[in-house]
What does this fold into?
Amino acid sequence: MDLLRPPRPALESVVVLAADGLTKRYGKVLAVDDLSFRVRPGTLTAFLGPNGAGKTTTLRIFLGLVHATSGAATIDGKPYRELEDPARVGAVLEATGFYPGRSGRNHLRAVAAAADVPVGRIDEVLGVVGLEAAADRRVGGYSLGMRQRLGIATALLGEPEILILDEPANGLDPDGIHWIREFMRDYVRGGRTILVSSHVLAEVAQVADEVVIIDKGRLVAQAPVAELTARASGAVRVRSPQADRLRELLGPETVAESDGVLLVRGRSAAEVGELAAGNGIVLHELVQETATLEEAFLELTRE
Amino acid sequence: MTALVKSELLKLRTTRLVPGLLIAFLGLIVLYVVAVVSQTDVTDLRLSPEAPFGAAAAAVILVLMLGVTVTAGEYRHGTITATFLVSPRRERVLLAKLVAAILLGLAFAVAGVVVNVVVGWLALGVKHAGVSPFEGSVTEILGATLIGCALWSGLGAAIGAVTRNQVTAIVAAVVWFLIAEPLFGTLLHQYGDYLPGAALGAIFEGHEGLSRTGGILASLAWITVIGAIGAVLVIRDDVG
It folds into this structure.
């Protein structure tokens, strides 16, 4: 019977993007330092780290724009340059790569021509990003948000199965950030894969399945997002005229932030409130702080 | 490859620099014809009727700039990133750019020849020189204009690939053609005829050192060598 069973897929076949010992050195600076991580198909993986952590360099190595000093970044087991059909990978890098005097439509036409994509696809992608009305205007007159949308439209021309986005929310207004988030959510729903970098955890936490965190070019953690946020749940901020007494009750994990204000770790706001009520302590303020990326770092690296 | 060439031509058509260069190129041709015809005696014009028809040779620096734009222009605006994302095999992109540069140089030459013939004919008529622009020596120089412009543009593309900076490429070219090459030419004696400026010049007017065909072959060799250096650098270097 075993003979009839289909062969179990090799580990590599369930990985879309893989970094293996990726290293990039610029002179004396190690921008990426022995970085290894995996992106599974059908997931939205957030690639997080503070500014200068090496995220952009890593993504550019994946896309064949920057050469690794050592190690490998592969897509379906191959370097980007050796892909049969690079159009199945879409990428949105910084929103500067447009000729200002060219219209958005002409920019798309040039890329579509090179990628052998039918012209009809141009109107489709303009529709997806909601840029139809501005398509015939010069890109020089576009707002940052419109350029970002044009970048996404360009990436979508080849109907890619994999999208690589570098800080797509940078410089966008709240509407724009919301739009990008919804766009990414819809995109992976159809089984497609996204790797998106950000230095703001909150931008992507709601939509990401998996998180890869790097700092100073090194991997800090790779974990499902649920696990990360559970571990890095922010502190509870509590203000009370009887702060000292409350602090005694809460134990050593609690720190006094300022006069009458405590930061409580390892307990929910509800637990703190109930404890205070049970002991007749008056509270003036009780807030569950949201986890910042920095706190996530601390939580994850503490182990 | 056809797709990449098409994309390059589309990109060039939708820049403002290329139509600007074309207008300047044609303007210089008109200026040249008017200057030559008005300053030359009728008897001299009858002796060398091709004189007003080699106008493009005086404006080739603009065709060189056109070629430079094809390769270096995309680095200026960062559109090279999008180009290499679509076609990560950079050597293919460069080859497409070289082909596009040569085709566009040829297109400039065709426009230049038409303007040159029309304005030259009119100017000669005004002068009552009684010469036709279709004499043997004239068609020869017009044919040379087509090949010459195509190769000047190709050379520009090769230089642009080496510098990947429009200003550096143009300054380097001007310094080379106006100062360095004449000096080297003196040092190298008859071998100086094979230097890029002399070789490309020989296409327009073959001289005792190098025939037209010799000029074309030497120019192709220079484009190949400089283009190969550019290709090595473009493939080796990181983008962004």
About this structure: The radius of gyration of chain A is 23 Å. The interface with chain B takes residues 60, 63-67, 80-81, 83, 86-87, 91, 93-94, 96-103, 106-107, 109-111, 113-116, 154 of chain A (CB under 8 Å). The mean pLDDT of chain A is 86. The first strand of chain A starts at residue 17 and ends at 26.
